[in-house]
Write a structure and sequence with these properties.
binds guanosine-5'-diphosphate, three-stranded antiparallel beta sheet, Helicase, Ruva Protein, domain 3, seven-stranded parallel beta sheet, 41% helix, alpha/beta, 319 residues
Length: 319
């Protein structure tokens, strides 16, 4: 079983590659829920949705979120009704939020709702929210404390950031199946997702980081930082706010407690050489995921890197 830790955008591109490379029932995806929000009275879980859509072959590649070919009639009507529309929801996407909210109102957990929606959409891989309890990513900015979506979507991540915290994390617990999946995995892959706002909340759930340390499976991460900058979004800004360098060394720092090997872009070959001196294994390849071919290629490379890692661990045990 291959286990992936992920957010929604960079992570979905990587999962798209894995979907082309690994059989569906060999994949378990543990997804960030720190960006979840209540929108128009509905419970929206943007990263869980992106991962579900990509596995169902429904994700819009152009937008990187929402459903391919979706329409926006409801959004337009909400605008006429004077409702906020800064968070865009397409009509087909809306159906998923309505169903999830209905299932939660019936007393189902977020994992149960996620499984039911994923199955109905034909997804055969396991999609696990990191926790069934609410963990909220809060961004402290010069304009005050904002939810992640307010910071990122509503305000275009323009506000200077002081710090990021994960409200509720201390009392959260991993969703059923999360720890088991990590402990029994043959490999764990951390997607090229934002280390602070996508992987940070997952690691903040008590027990998950410890499982990543204890698992026998090799843990590899793909850097979302390429050539010293984020490929997209606020990863650089948020990493700097944590006091981490905005580089592959900063990514290594974020995952230092459990990382066996870091996969970085060919543009970072020199930085990789320096990082290797610290003792970390670093693999250089193309990590820019623009086409289906590039996505599948990176998935294959990541799998061969962890496979080699397993071989190395087994020979070390024999010595
Ligand atoms: P979010 O929940 O939408 O923030 O999604 P993620 O955290 O999964 O994705 C955002 C991260 O993906 C950013 O830090 C980007 O730098 C990274 N990213 C996006 N596209 C690519 C890509 O093609 N290659 C790599 N290596 N990283 C990418």
């Amino acid at each position: 079983m291959i286990v992936v830790l992920t957010g929604g955008t960079g992570g979905a591109k990587f999962v798209d590659g894995l979907r082309q490379t690994v059989s569906a029932n060999e994949l378990t995806i543990i997804v960030n829920t720190g960006d979840d929000l209540e929108w128009w009275g509905l419970y929206v879980s943007p990263d869980v949705d992106s991962i579900t859509y990509v596995l169902a072959g429904m994700l819009s590649n152009e937008r990187g979120w929402g459903v391919k070919g979706d329409t926006f009639f409801c959004l337009e009507t909400m605008r006429k009704l004077g409702q906020p529309i800064w968070f865009h929801v397409g009509d087909r996407d809306l159906a998923v939020h309505v169903l999830r909210s209905k299932l939660l109102a019936q007393g189902k957990t977020l994992s149960e709702a996620t499984t039911e929606i994923a199955r109905s959409l034909g997804v055969q891989s396991r999609v696990l929210p990191m926790s069934n309890l609410r963990v909220e990513t809060r961004v402290d900015t010069s304009a005050g404390e904002l939810s992640f979506q307010e910071y990122f979507v509503q305000r275009w991540y323009q506000d200077p950031v002081n710090s990021v915290r994960f409200a509720g994390a201390a009392h959260a617990e991993p969703a059923p199946g999360v720890i088991d999946a990590i402990m029994s995995a043959s490999a764990v892959l951390v997607a090229p997702s934002n280390p602070v706002s996508s992987i940070g909340p997952i690691l903040a759930v008590p027990g998950i980081k410890e499982a990543l340390q204890r698992t026998k499976a090799p843990v590899a991460a793909i850097s979302p930082i390429v050539g010293g900058a984020a490929v997209s979004g606020p990863a650089g800004i948020l990493m700097a706010a944590q006091g981490w360098p905005v580089s592959i060394a900063g990514v290594a720092r974020a995952y230092k407690d459990f990382l066996d090997v870091l996969i970085v872009d060919g543009r970072d070959t020199q930085a990789a050489e320096e990082l290797r001196r610290s003792g970390l294994r670093v693999h250089c390849t193309n990590t820019l995921l623009r086409t289906a071919g590039e996505k599948a290629e990176l998935a294959r490379t990541a799998l061969s890197v962890v496979h080699r890692e397993t071989g190395m661990q087994q020979s070390a045990q024999k010595l």
